[in-house]
Each structure stands twice: as structure tokens, then as C-alpha cells.
Amino acid sequence: MTSEGWGTPPVEPISQHYIVCGGNALAHRLILELVEHYEVPVVVLVADRSRDHAPQIEQLDGVAAVVEYAGITDEALRAVSIGTARGLALVEGSDQENIHAALSAQNHNPDIRIVFRMFNQRLGENIERLLRNGAALSGSATAAPAFAAAALGRPNSVEIDGRYLHIAFDDAITSDRICVVADQIDRQDLGRIRLLPAQQGDSAEFVRLATEFGDDGPIRPGGVRREPAPAADPGPEEEPGGTAALQVLPIEPREPIDWRRRVRWRLLDTMRFFTSARMRLVLLTALAAVLMSFGVLWYLSRDFGWTVYISLLDLAGAAQPDQLSDIAAGTGTGGFWQRVAQVVITICGITFAPVATAIAVEVLGSGRRGQPRNPGAGTRDHVIVVGLGNVGTRVAAQLHDLGVPVVCMERDPQARGVAAVRALGIPVVMGDGPFEEQLRRARLKHSRALVAVSGDDATNLEAALEARHGNPEVRVVVRLFDDNFAGHFYKTLDNAASRSVSYLAAPAFAAALMGREVRGTLSVFRHALLIAELTVEDGSGLIGLNRHDLEDPGGVRVIAVRFAHGSQLQWGLPDRTRQLAPGDRIVVAATRSGLARLNTVAVEE
């Protein structure tokens, strides 16, 4: 492709194409999905041909044209032939800009399929109602569960009809698994992983035996047993590698923290109010004086309950002093030393009162909406989230909802997620200092994991390496775009994981652009497994197909079916020969190419 199309309409008229607006990582991955797996013509609209991923997009095979405009205006939409396009994807810009562009595109082409990225999912649902054929997706909401689950060292899950699907590996696979989704898993060579390979079915072993013995069976005519042909030397046996399977959980597991640990951490957290050596000296001296006076009162009265009662009143300044008339009449409280002890307790109570007031004001004030709160001494077994962009904000909120302590780090005080996480009461470490100092303030030595999800691969890797240097046992999860970079990362670091936001989100955007509903994305290391729901419509190429037809080519597993005449999902349908009819809905686990193949079959008439 040449650069003749920059800033001008495509040289040749084009129709039935798809338009992608954006030059970021998500746009790059989405274009790859469309041209490689769906094999459709794509026209790209970018703001600057020299920034972000625009130069790499220009070099992609299958891109019909790349057009450069500063904004998504009516002129820009006409330049990319919006009137004859089948679909439009808006994956860059703010929520407001994408809403404006979506409404403008619908005015030019009322029948076009529009998929737009929205951080505010509630607003996106409302905008969908204004569009005839539109869908609002959040890339960060799609990818965040994978990051949160990786930080906890467990697979993320996707909810389907009240059940939670997740990926289990090797020894964690149980007998009630739905299906095997990957094999040949080698952490040192992730390229060996086979995701949803060609399906052999339960009768594969019988087919192999029939092929081996021929049409006459294992006994040849005349009663002579056929000798099997000598097998060729298989050579050294290769290591099969690990296995991953799709399983069901009845509920989404939480991360409960024992209440004893919470109490201990809370007590440790209160120590931050006594960091001054002079303050500690004054309070310890006052406490010692109160305890000594308490002992005097107990010795004189011989009544522990009464001693506690009178001491508390003295601390609060509410005890009634002895009067001279009471002493003369012999009705006083009982002696000179008792009165001295009560005076000492009262004076010490005056010392404690302002400290207690300051602690109460600080605790209540830090809990107000939007007020910052720094991590205290009681912050332990927590997850550190580096970067409070769209993804970091989602990850922090999900971990918080699961009951996991979270500490966030952000250098930009105006970042989108700072106010959001502070509203949840999550501590935020701000500043431009070196990572070593920032991680120390975030209490790295007491943390369980670090999730680096800024928009820059180098920054994320720096944070991960600095964290591993400060705490060799901490688990690190890093957001990386480059697959080769991620492969080296897996080989170098143990107890680590890498995820790509665009790799996880792009298949969902591509499927939505084709009118398919992706319910969620599961991760098998750097590979994405899509959980999608498809409806068999009148005239669809899915009519008459059975499970063998759908699964045998590979890349697809049918995990549940809702028949047109039924209301409940049937999991693991045993009848593999039952043909699909109009109105049936199927839930599938699919690779990106597998879902693209289903989409191609579905539109055939």
C-alpha cells in the first residue's frame, strides 16, 4: 500500500467494508483480527500517521486504505466511504467524542453496524438505545478481570447463566471438567501451546483401531490373526507439556481475610499516630502514671470493679472530689493517697483527650469521599496497582470488591482513576520519585503481588523488576503489548504473568462488529479464549449443523445449548448429532479464528 490515500478518500470506490477509527494498540489488534480471521476489507481513519501504531497499521496486508484526519468529522466520515460501509469501530478518543462520532455515522448510514469504546458502561448502555444497530464495549472492563485474577494467582472467570467458567491447569483439573481447551503448554516456549485443536471426539480410539485392522476386523478370514505392521521408530519421546481445561464454579470465589488478621493489622495501623519520639515518651509516661494510680486505688479499696469505675470517671474528668465537710464527718472516699491517685489519673486524662480526638478526626476525615489516604503500618498482604488509567482503575476496583487490600501508585495527580479509587477508600501513593522510593511507601515488602498496567511497556517492566528486587517473593503481573517481549519475560521471571489489554479486548470488539455477543475472555497465558453466545437465525448457515460439524475443524467447543422451545441452558449436551434449528442459542468456547469461522458459517445462506 502507498501513502496516496493519506488525507484523501480511497483511490478506488469501495463498499461493504469496515472502518476502524484509531491508531492505538487496540485499533492495531482489531485490524489484525478483521483482516486475518474475518478476511474483510478494512479502511482505517487515524489522527496522525506518524504517532502510536499508525506506521505499523499502514504496513498491514489486507488494509484497503489509511486516511488521516485530525478528528472524526463529517468530512472524514465521507472520506472513508461511510455511506457504503458495513461496520464502524470507534476505539480511540474520549467517551464524548465517540458518542458524537457514532451519532454522526448513523446519520450518514442508518444501517451501519457501530461498535464504540466507552469507559462509562452505564452511559454506553443508554447510548446503545439511541442507535439502530450499535454496541458499546469497554476494553478495560474486558481485560481487567484477567489482570485481577493473575494478581491473585488464579484464572479469571466468565459468568454464564449463574455459573462461572474458568480455566484450570494440570493438577487443578477435576473429573467434571467441560472440555480440554489447551495442551502442550510449555512456560519456556509459549508458541507450542495448542488452543482448541482439531476435535477427535470420544470415538477416536475406535476409529484408530478400525483403521489399523482394516474392514475385516482384528481376525482375518480363516481364523488367522493379522499381525500388526511393524511400527516405525518414533524416536525420542517429546515432553507432552501441561494441559488446561474449562471448568465451572457455582459462585465467584472471594478472597476472605481472617478477622483476627484484620484486627491485628488495624492495631498496627494505629501506630502511625505515634511516630514522634516525643509523643511516644509523653504518652508512655502518662500511661505508666495511670497504671500506678490504678494500682493504688485497687490496693486501698480491694474492689476491682469499683476501681475500674472510678478510674474511668477520673480519666474523663467526671469524678466528684471530696469536700472538707465530708472529710470532717468521716464520709470521704478514703484517704490522702487515694485522692493523690485520682488527681494523677485526671491530669493524665487531660493528656490523652486531645490525642484521641486527633485520631478520631483523622480516621473520619480520611474516610470522606475523595480524600487521600496513605497506606499505614497495617497495610499487609495487599496488591499494588501501578498506573491509574482505565485498566488500572478497573483492576483496583475489582480487587477491592473481592475483599483484597489494594494500594495504588500514580505519578499524574490528574489521572482519571485517582478520584475513583480514593472514593473507595483505597490508599494512593503519588509523586514523581524513583520506583524504589514509591514502592517502599506502598509497603512492597508486605505485599502479595504487583500489577503494572500503565500504557508504556518499559515503565511496566521497570516497575516489575524493581518490585522483584525489593521483594523476591512478590508476584508480578505486567501489561505488555509485544508478544516477543512477553515471551522473554515468562522465561526470565518465575511467579510472574503477562497480559495484553488489546489482545484480550480486540476479539470481543471484532465479534461485536460482526454482530456476535462475546460474554467474556479467558486467558491461557498470552492466548485468549472467547466465550461467545450465538443465535441460530432463519437463513443462517448454522441450521442443520451438529456438534461434530462445529467442533471437528478445531478452534470451537460447544459448551451449552438453549433450544428454541426451552428456557434453560443444557450444559455438555451429550447428543452430538442433534442438529441446530432456528431459534436455538449456543454458548461456545472459541479461539479468535474459530469464532471468525462460525461467523462466516452463520452468514451463509
Describe, in plain words, how this protein is organized in 3D:
It contains 20 helices and 22 strands. Strand 16 (475-479), helix 17 and strand 17 (496-499) form a beta-alpha-beta unit. Helix content is 39%, strand content 19%. The chain is elongated and about 105 Å long. With 605 residues, the protein is of the alpha/beta class. The model is unreliable at 1-11, 205-211, 219-226 and 234-238 (pLDDT under 50).
Rg, alpha carbons:
33 Å
Q: How large a portion of the residues is in β-strands, by DSSP E?
A: 15-25%
- Note the main sheet: 6 strands, parallel
Structural class based on helices, strands and sheet pairing: alpha/beta
Helical proportion? 25-40%
C-alpha termini separation: 33 Å
Labels describing this entry:
605 residues; alpha/beta; 6-stranded parallel beta sheet; 20 helices; 19% strand; disordered N terminus
SSE blueprint:
Layout: E1 18-21, H1 25-38, E2 42-46, H2 54-58, E3 63-68, H3 74-79, E4 87-90, H4 95-108, E5 113-117, H5 121-130, E6 134-137, H6 139-151, E7 157-160, E8 163-169, E9 179-185, E10 194-195, H7 204-213, E11 242-249, H8 259-270, H9 277-301, H10 304-315, H11 324-329, H12 336-366, E12 383-386, H13 390-401, E13 406-410, H14 418-423, E14 428-430, H15 435-441, E15 449-452, H16 457-470, E16 475-479, H17 483-492, E17 496-499, H18 501-513, E18 517-524, E19 527-535, H19 547-551, E20 556-562, E21 570-571, E22 585-590, H20 592-603
Parallel strand pairs: 1-2, 1-4, 2-3, 4-5, 5-6, 12-13, 12-15, 13-14, 15-16, 16-17
Antiparallel strand pairs: 7-8, 8-11, 9-10, 9-11, 18-19, 19-22, 20-21, 20-22
Helix pairs in contact: 1-18, 1-20, 6-13, 6-18, 9-10, 9-12, 10-12, 15-16
